[in-house]
Write a structure and sequence with these properties.
Elements: H1 4-9, H2 15-30, E1 36-37, H3 49-61, H4 64-67, H5 77-91, E2 100-103, H6 105-117, E3 123-127, H7 134-139, E4 144-148, H8 159-165, E5 170-176, H9 188-205, E6 210-214, E7 237-242, E8 255-259, H10 266-280, H11 287-294, H12 304-319, E9 332-333, H13 342-353, E10 355-356, E11 358-359, E12 369-372, H14 377-393
Parallel strand pairs: 1-10, 3-4, 3-5, 5-6, 6-7
Antiparallel strand pairs: 2-8, 7-8, 9-12, 11-12
Helix pairs in contact: 3-11, 5-11, 6-10, 12-14, 13-14
Length: 397
């Protein structure tokens, strides 16, 4: 018998991927240079040149059987030691290798974090707008995902709604800052208030409540934006990181879980991750890629283009009458659609003007749409004419 759960999921495909597929089809017909594809969050700048040099060095200087063999269940020890040292130096927290578990990107890190601290029947709270894949990530563990409605004036946390939903079943809070899809970075004030609320909630309900902090965009923060380290504010924080965006490395599937050393069960959680791997068939990322990122700590691709693109789009789209909360990082922004039905709006943008935008419904914000501006700046500039026609059609100008 086929699994009813996963068979049902066949009818719940990612709207991001669907819009990308439509863009590809149109591109085949009219030329990809004529399609303004703002659908996928795929980095548009290459990995640093140093990446190839590091990989060649590892290949030339490593014993093949050791290099290409299985790594230890937690990940390669020397890699974990270097990552812990980097985190300690960067954030001033006493990380050691015992607080780090290597994972297949942030998705793999989240899969382990959820299973380590949340039991079936318990709840994970997240805040709209949120990455749509959180829903299957959480629900396939047997836990429930509870979504707090967005504060659409700022896209900071809607604390009034959040405090009403906190209850004895709350096991973890899932946050994503800098945020996909809004591009907003949670402020120090926001993180401090969240931590204060959770400390009181732990006392009230008599059990630990964890912050699971999804941080793949941590390095993509624009000039002058307040971007606090979540782990410095709350002991029970589990950091889930990926090198996909900072190093333009998404296809290599490499990241880690890092549990705040102040968490009383930090080392236990890391050891549990190895056992979780046995249940989900994770069995460690590729050894070569683990060793590669360990030699690139603190390195990033040339990320400045994302702020350049953000500034162009924000200035031009607000001039055209679109309402946008200005992003503070990532390569996303999340304007309000000029009509209630963002799906209809995005379909019009695609069919008439070759603009590929993603409706906000699956992000928990109907009436908004996501722009993923990890594209060439030249194409961003050329797309403004299409946005002008779209704005005119809906009476914004």
């Amino acid at each position: 018998m086929l699994s009813p759960k996963y068979k049902e999921m066949l009818g719940m495909k990612s709207v991001i991927r669907e819009m990308s597929a439509k863009a590809h089809k149109i591109g085949e017909e009219i030329g990809f240079e004529n399609v303004f594809d703002y659908s996928l969050g795929n980095p548009s700048v290459p990995a640093p040149e140093k990446v190839n040099d590091v990989i060649k060095k590892i290949l030339d200087n490593s014993e093949p059987l050791a290099l290409h063999g299985y790594s230890e269940g937690h990940g390669i020890l020397s890699v974990r030691e270097k990552i812990a040292g980097y985190l300690k130096e960067t954030y001033g927290l006493p990380y050691t290798y015992n607080h780090v578990f290597m994972a297949s990107g942030a998705a793999g890190a989240l899969a382990h974090a959820f299973r380590a601290v949340v039991c079936p029947g318990e709840e994970i709270i997240t805040f709209a707008p949120f990455f749509p894949e959180y829903r299957p990530y959480v629900e396939t563990t047997g836990a429930a995902l509870k979504v707090i409605p967005a504060d659409t004036t700022s896209f900071q946390i809607n604390f009034e709604a959040f405090e009403k939903e906190l209850n004895e079943k709350t096991a973890a809070i899932l946050i994503n800052t800098p945020n996909n899809p809004s591009g907003i970075v949670y402020s120090t004030e926001t993180i401090q208030k969240l931590a204060d609320i959770l400390k009181k909630a732990q006392e009230k309900y008599g059990h630990d409540i964890y912050i699971i902090s999804d941080e793949p965009y941590r390095e993509i923060v624009f000039d002058g934006v307040d971007a606090p380290c979540v782990s410095k504010f709350y002991d029970n924080t589990i950091m889930c990181y990926s090198y996909s965006k900072s190093l333009s490395f998404p296809g290599e599937r490499i990241g880690y879980v890092a549990v705040n050393p102040a968490c009383k069960d930090a080392e236990t959680i890391i050891h549990m991750c190895v056992q979780i791997s046995r249940g989900i068939g994770h069995n460690c990322p590729a050894s070569l890629i683990q060793l590669t990122v360990a030699e690139l700590l603190g390195e990033t691709s040339d990320l400045k283009v994302y702020e350049t693109n953000a500034n162009i789009l924000y200035e031009e789209l607000t001039r055209l009458g679109f309402s946008i909360v200005k992003p503070g990082g990532t390569f996303y922004m999340f304007p309000k659609a000029p009509i209630e039905d963002a799906n209809e709006f995005c379909n019009t943008a695609l069919e008439k003007y070759n603009l590929v935008l993603v409706p906000g419904d699956s992000f928990g914000c109907p009436g908004f749409f996501r722009i993923s501006y990890c594209v060439e700046t030249e194409k961003v500039k050329r797309s403004i004419a299409a946005f002008e026609k779209l704005a005119a059609e809906y009476g914004l100008i």
